[in-house]
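User: Hey, quick favor. My workstation is busy. Could you predict this chain's structure for me?
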Amino acid sequence: MERPLRPLHPFPDGWYVLELASDLRKEQLIEKTWMGKEIVVWRDRDGAVCVADAFCPHLGSHLGPSVGGMVRDGKLVCPFHGFEYDVSGKCVGARDAPPPRSARLKLYEVAEVNGYIFAYWDNAGRAPEWHIPDVCPDGWEGRVLKRLRLRAHPQTTTENSVDLCHLAHVHGYRELKQLKPTKIEGPFLSSSYEFRKGILTPGLQRLEIWTAIDVGVWGLGISTVEVHGLEPNIEVRLWIMATPVDGDHIDYSLAVDPVDASRWFRLLPVFIRQRVVPKVLLNDLVLEVGRDAEIWSRQLYQPKPVLSRADGDLFRFRRYCDQFYGAEQAA
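Assistant: No problem, here it is.
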C-alpha cells in the first residue's frame, strides 16, 4: 500500500485544463475524474461548453457515455429515465411528466481560452476571483500536445518554475542565471532566466541550445514558458499544466505552440519547420519531465523546509501558493 506523501490539500483552488478545445465537438459528451469527482463535459449545438457533476439529481444515475448518457438536440440525456438538461444545468425535459423545477445539475465555471477548455475549482464553492489571460489571440495552429498521468501534486510540479538548483542538478542546465526578479501579482507569478542545455532527443544529443525564457504561472494548474532562442533563433511557447485527478495523481499536459523557428531548419519550408521544431521540443520536454516524475512520485512534502542560499525564491513561492488553499492551508 502506498503511503501518503504530502500534507498539502490535494485540490488547490484555481483553473485547471480539461481538454483541447478542438477535441470537444458539438454534441459530444466525455466523462472524467477531476478533483476527486466524476464529471461530464459537453458542447451544445451552439458550441457552449458545460462541465457538471456526473450524477443525475433525479435518482443518481451516472450521466457519462460509458453507461449510456448522450447529448441529443444540444441537451444532456440521462440514460436511466431520460431526464434532459441544458448547459445552464436546468432540467428541461422528462418522460411522461413536466420536468421538476428543482432538478439541476451541479455546474463548474468554464473558460474556453488559448485553445483549451478550463474549469474552475474552489473548495468553498466560490465564484472565480480571477481569469485566465488570452496569451495567444492569433491562434494555435501547429500545437503539439502530450498528456501524462503522474503521481504528484500540482504545487510541487509548479515549484519547478523557481527551483533553479534542480534545473542545474537534475536537468543539466549550464550558465544558468536569472534575468529578472520573480514578480508576484495576485494569482500571477513571473520570472525570466537564461541558460545552455543539450538536446535529449535521440539523434540530436550533440546539439545544444542557448536560450532565454519568460515563465508565467497562473495558479497551480497553468504555466507558460516563452522561449526566446539565442542560439539557434527559435521562438516558441510551452504550456505545462497540472490537473488533479483523484487526490494522489495529476494529468500533466505538455504542449508546444510554434511561433518562429529558423537557422537550424532554414533550408526547410516554413510549414515543415513549424511541425518539426515543436515535436522535437515537446519530446525533450517529456524526457525532462520523466526525470522529475521519478522524484515527484516518492517526494515527501516538507512544510517547513531547511533551505540553503541556493534555493532562491522557494520561500516566496510557498507564500504565493497559500492563496490557493483558502481555509485549507498547507500544514
